Amino acid sequence: MSENAFYSDRAGFGKTRVSETISAEVWAGLTALIQQRINDGSLARAFPLYACPDDPGRNTVTGTDEEQFLRSLAAHVPDLIEPPAASYPGQDGKFAEIAFGRLSNQSHVAEPPRSPLDSDKLPDTATALDLIDFVGLHIDHPTHRLSHDWDFAHTHYCFQQHDSLYNAELTPGQNQLRRDVDLLFARNGIGYTVGDDMRIRRLGPPEVRPLISDFSPATGDSQLDNKLNDAMVRFLSRDPSARRDALEKLWDAFERLKTLELGGGPLKKSSASQPLTRAASGSEPFRELLENEFKALTGIGNDFTIRHHEHDKEDVPTDAAIDYLFVRLTSVISVVLRHTGRMAS
């Protein structure tokens, strides 16, 4: 199902994907998606339940061991679990049993901790996205289901043998999870997506998304290409500190770009002017515009804590300012590389 599955999206009334905060409605949708995967056996390969009475050797998977899944989830994404209060008997190692409802006598506990998949307990955005990363690592799709009525009605599940942690290709279950999460995010205007490595990544500002998705430098300078590609990857990180690193990487690449035409000449200024002339395609006013933009961006890199970090430099104040500067510099670099034949087609 694509993100254009709904009429409002096809008619152009869909939400722009700019929000970087998981709302209560989206969290409820995510927990419903994960619970569905628990129920339909998509998580049974990683967390198998062996409940067939006709198989004492425990070789037949009959579903997902939900308790095992929740325990592993709580261990890998601990912020989904509320810490035990002093009145809980968690001090003697039984907190997990309370959390998953295993203690028969809870009369002395006012309220047990909630399940990690409590749809009414909205976590912070990073924690909610960690949940998707965790499920993406372990999800699969049963290749075969067989109903079995011995003693009680249940289902036997079979899976293709592979290790999803190291398998280069995504499983059908992973692909379906990607589509479902992306649709949920698109319908609610969430600016994240699940990448082809099953990791959550940031979409970035709408105005730069096509620019970054088509950004494939082929400058003939491997160091420059690496700096540019590294900057693009870091910019799409959901970690704000990584995006600040991306800005610094991009400015480093910008300075190296100025020396591409240096050849045997001694001056960076002379080297930088040559790609500008070629990129202007004979238009002197456009060449002047590009030259002024190069000068302005050079000044920005020197005045803010981008290329230099002395005490007299100004910090880039906000994440929105980082986005703006990154988009601005990426745009002019892209124009120059494309117009000088240094961008892969």
Number of helices: 12
* Largest beta-sheet details: 2 strands, antiparallel
Radius of gyration from the alpha-carbon trace, in angstroms: 26 Å
Low-confidence stretches are: 84-110
Q: In whole angstroms, how far apart are the ends?
A: 30 Å
Number of strands: 6
Estimated structural class: mainly alpha
Apparent shape: elongated
Strand content: 5-15%
Count of distinct structural domains: 2
Q: Helical amount among residues, as a percent range? A: 40-55%
Order of SSEs: HHEEHHHEEHEEHHHHHH
Mean pLDDT: 84
- The largest beta-sheet arranges its strands as 1-2
Account of the protein in words:
There is one protein chain. The chain is mainly α. The chain folds into two domains: 7-81 and 116-194, no CATH class; 206-339. The protein has twelve helices and six strands. It has helices spanning 7-10, 24-39, 66-76, 95-99, 125-138, 172-187, 209-213, 222-235, 240-257, 268-280, 284-303, 319-339, and strands at residues 48-49, 63-64, 144-148, 154-158, 192-194, 200-202. The chain has a two-stranded antiparallel ribbon with strand order 1-2. Strands 3-4 form a two-stranded antiparallel ribbon. Strands 5-6 form a two-stranded antiparallel ribbon. A hairpin with a 5-residue loop joins strand 3 and strand 4. Helix 8 packs antiparallel against helix 9, helix 10 packs across helix 11 and helix 10 (268-280) crosses helix 12 (319-339). It is elongated, with a radius of gyration of 26 Å. Residues 84-110 have low confidence and may be disordered.
